[in-house]
């Protein structure tokens, strides 16, 4: 007696469904227009939810016109521009520092000259007093030679003597020690100089000590 072997039941083969090469684009655009991502066969996973616009396109160079791309570009900092701005700031700071250094060096040189000049100037006052005391012509000539040499050296440094006698009194350059009355001279002019004053680069480094003419008004006139 023969038995038939159990034949395996035939199962219907499930039809193979080919997945589309591109997923449906979820970008927000008009129904009539076609997204550029879809037209180029790119996979676009942009969310249509307005509250979440984070782009999830797999292609970094996606040309999708959805707003998520624009926002993403705005959020990413431009490192090249940032470094360029930093370089410009550093360059500007360095230029300012260099200019300040140059000005500081110039001012230091000027201050050094003024300090040296202020030490020499009292010597000229001594020569002036010496000429009033010395009567010997030979000695007097020697004093004048030394005095002239010092004055020429000061001129070479830019030092100028302030004019006084016969000039109108000017508080910017003169200090009045006292007054005298001389009707033969105009009122307010300098009659005599007690100590000479000097200017360096339009800056007074020593004021002239002078006596000023002051004509007293006669009450009867």
Structural notes for this entry:
With 221 residues, the chain is an alpha+beta fold. 40% of the residues lie in helices and 13% in strands. The protein contains four helices and six strands; from the N terminus they run H-H-H-H-E-E-E-E-E-E. The chain has helices at 36-39, 67-75, 79-133, 137-156; strands at residues 159-161, 174-180, 190-195, 198-200, 203-206, 208-213. The strands form two sheets. Strands 1-4-5 form a three-stranded antiparallel beta sheet. A three-stranded mixed beta sheet has the order 2-6-3, with no helix packed on it. A hairpin with a 2-residue loop joins strand 4 (198-200) and strand 5 (203-206). Helix 3 packs antiparallel against helix 4. The longest helix has 55 residues, at 79-133.
What is the topological layout?
Blueprint: H1 36-39, H2 67-75, H3 79-133, H4 137-156, E1 159-161, E2 174-180, E3 190-195, E4 198-200, E5 203-206, E6 208-213
Parallel strand pairs: 2-6
Antiparallel strand pairs: 1-4, 3-6, 4-5
Helix pairs in contact: 3-4
CATH topology title of one domain? Nucleotide Exchange Factor Grpe, Chain A, domain 2
CA radius of gyration: 49 Å
CATH superfamily of one domain: Head domain of nucleotide exchange factor GrpE
Q: Which strand order does the major sheet show? A: 1-4-5
Tell me the total number of β-strands. Answer: 6
* Sheet of most strands: 3 strands, antiparallel
Question: Which CATH class of one domain is shown?
Answer: Mainly Beta
Shape: elongated
| CATH 2nd-level architecture of one domain | Roll
Q: What percentage of the residues does DSSP assign to strands (E)?
A: 5-15%
Rounded average pLDDT: 76
Number of helices: 4
Contiguous uncertain segments of 5+ residues: 47-53
Query: Which range best describes the helical content: under 10%, 10-25%, 25-40%, 40-55%, 55-70% or over 70%?
Result: 25-40%
């Amino acid at each position: 007696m023969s038995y038939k072997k159990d034949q395996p039941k035939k199962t219907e083969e499930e039809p193979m469904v080919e997945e589309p090469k591109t997923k449906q684009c979820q970008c927000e655009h008009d129904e009539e227009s076609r997204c550029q991502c879809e037209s180029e066969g790119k996979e676009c996973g942009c969310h249509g939810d307005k509250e979440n616009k984070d782009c999830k396109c797999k292609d970094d160079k996606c040309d999708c016109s959805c707003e998520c791309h624009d926002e993403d570009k705005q959020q990413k900092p431009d490192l090249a521009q940032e470094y360029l701005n930093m370089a410009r700031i550093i360059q500007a700071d360095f230029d300012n520092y260099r200019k300040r250094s140059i000005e500081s060096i110039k001012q230091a040189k000027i201050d050094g000259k003024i300090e040296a000049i202020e030490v020499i100037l009292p010597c000229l006052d001594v020569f002036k007093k010496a000429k009033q005391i010395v009567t010997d012509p030979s000695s007097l000539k020697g004093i004048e030679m030394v005095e002239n040499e010092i004055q020429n050296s000061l001129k070479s440094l830019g030092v100028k003597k302030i004019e006084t006698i016969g000039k109108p009194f000017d508080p910017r350059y003169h200090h009045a020690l006292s007054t005298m009355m001389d009707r033969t001279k105009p009122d307010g002019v300098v009659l005599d100089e007690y100590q000479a004053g000097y200017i360096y680069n339009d800056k007074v480094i020593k004021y002239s000590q002078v006596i000023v003419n002051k004509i007293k008004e006669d009450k009867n006139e």
